[in-house]
Design a protein that fits this description.
The chain is α/β, with parallel strands linked by helices. It folds into 2 domains: 34 residues; 115 residues, Glutaredoxin (3-Layer(aba) Sandwich). Helices cover 38% and strands 19% of the residues. The chain has 4 helices and 6 strands, in the order αββαβαβββα. The protein starts with 6 loop residues before the first helix and ends in a 6-residue tail after the last helix.
């Protein structure tokens, strides 16, 4: 009986892909667990503050998908609307220093840290509470309205 040896390279390739996916999943989950900013901020609990400080980790120079210019414009508009109460620090992770800062702060993708937190609980447009995490490009995990709700709620202007 002659064995078909052509199946073995395909099986090894499939197993290798599976191993890579498992390792990638473990790395991603470990980074999320190490993220110091995943603590929930509940803007529904009357957590009014005098000032909102935002650290924006964006890829501003590369022009890649979700590069951050839309988010930057949104943040600039919030600073213009509340010049004495909202500040933004931009960290361009498209640069070596920016990337190192992002990794040091426990992030693995673009995102916003708002008053030390990345995740907030807000009232959605349907009136139900939901969790919003300011990670990934705009309109993936959060919307422009979500960001405005959190900022205005923190400033005591609107209880989203």
């Amino acid at each position: 009986m002659k064995k078909n040896n052509k199946k073995y390279p395909l099986m090894i390739f499939i197993i290798a892909i599976g191993v890579v996916l498992i390792i990638f999943s473990i790395f991603t989950f470990a980074n999320y667990e190490n993220n110091n900013y995943k603590n929930n901020g509940n803007v529904l609990e009357g957590s009014q503050v005098e000032r909102v400080n935002i650290k924006a980790y964006l890829n501003l120079k590369s022009g890649c998908e979700g590069g951050g210019n839309e988010v930057k414009n949104l943040l600039d508009n919030l600073v213009q609307e509340y010049p004495e109460r909202v500040s933004v620090e931009y960290i361009d992770f498209g640069t070596r220093d920016g990337y190192n800062q992002m990794v040091k702060d426990g992030l693995n993708c673009q995102g916003l840290i708002i008053n030390g937190k990345q995740t907030y609980i807000i009232n959605g447009s349907n009136g139900k509470q939901r969790e919003v995490t300011f990670t990934h490009p705009l309109n993936v995990e959060y919307t422009a309205d979500d960001l405005k709700i959190v900022v205005k709620s923190l400033l005591g202007e609107d209880r989203g």
